[in-house]
Amino acid sequence: MWQLYQFPLCPFSRKVRLLLGEKGVGYDLIRESPWLRRDEFMDMNPAGQTPVMVDPSRNILLIDSTAICEYFEETVEQAAMINGTAANRAETRRLMSWFDHQFYHEVTAPLLHERMIKRVVHRAAPDAKVLREAMKAAIGQLDYIDFLLDHRTWIGGATMGLADLAAAAQISVADYLGGIDWKGHDQTARWYRGFKSRPSFRPLLSERMEGIAPPSYYDDVDF
User: Fold this and answer.
1) Angle at the Cα of 117 from the Cα atoms of 64 and 10, rounded to 5 degrees
2) Residue 112 is inside which H or E element, if any?
3) Are 198 and 168 in contact (CB under 8 A)?
4) Cα gap 81→83, rounded to integer Å
5) Spatial strand order in the sheet of 2-6
6) I need a labelling partner for 141 at 20 to 30 A (CA). Which of 56, 71, 133, 167 fits?
């Protein structure tokens, strides 16, 4: 059985979990707080980052969310998430990278640092200026998603793909931390409501990070 090392608000672990859910791959969750830098975890991944997937029975170790997703895309035929023409596949990968890097660094990472790491690790108050900048950046990111969905059925094209999973994972964490203003983003909200109703997404919405409560609408599919 696969084991997935992660913590509830890791957006990259959420991306992997969404893909595994869509493909019907079973796994056990193992809680890992990477900021503790446990020796056993650092031995598995010297970068000290989640997610990490392990299949002890086959001595397989997978590190990095993109590498993990590509592994299961190559080995599990069900629910292909990188499909279409070569140009379509390139666009899916481009947008996955966009959400894993631009969205994460502009929005998710500062929200996680100010509202989770500072509270859980440092017992410090968040910086209001940093939070305002992250929420402002989130508006720009939702504007871009609105633009994409004006021209496509899904973020990456005509069918749901890995770009959608990457976007939903980042947005779900930012939304949990109160960093998303949905006003004026009807296209993205409609897409996200559809995503929240998928069986692969529901387990994520029920999880909570200790000491940090999400907004009241967080797990409401009809927010």
Assistant:
1) 30
2) helix 109-112
3) no
4) 6
5) 27-31, 2-6, 52-55, 60-63
6) 71
How many degrees, rounded to 5, is the angle at CA 125 between CA 14 and CA 121? Answer: 55
Number of neighbouring beta carbons within 10 Å of residue 74: 9
CA distances 152 to 91, 108, 161, 193, Å, are 12, 25, 12, 17
Walk me through the domains of the chain, giving residue ranges and CATH numbers.
2-75 (3.40.30.10), 86-206 (1.20.1050.10)
Instruction: Report CA dihedral (86, 67, 178, 182) to the nearest 10 degrees.
Output: 10
Pick out the chain residues at pLDDT < 70: none
C-alpha 23/C-alpha 176 separation (Å) is: 25
Sign of CA dihedral 12, 15, 19, 25: positive
Q: Give the angle subtended at the CA of 115 by the CAs of 111 and 116, to the nearest 5°.
A: 105
H or E element, residue 163: helix 162-176
Please check whether residue 179 is in contact with residue 134, taking contact to mean a CB–CB distance below 8 angstroms.
yes
CB atoms within 10 A of CB 92: 24
Instruction: Give pTM, 2 decimals.
Output: 0.96
- DSSP 8-class letter at 19: H
pLDDT of residue 223: 84
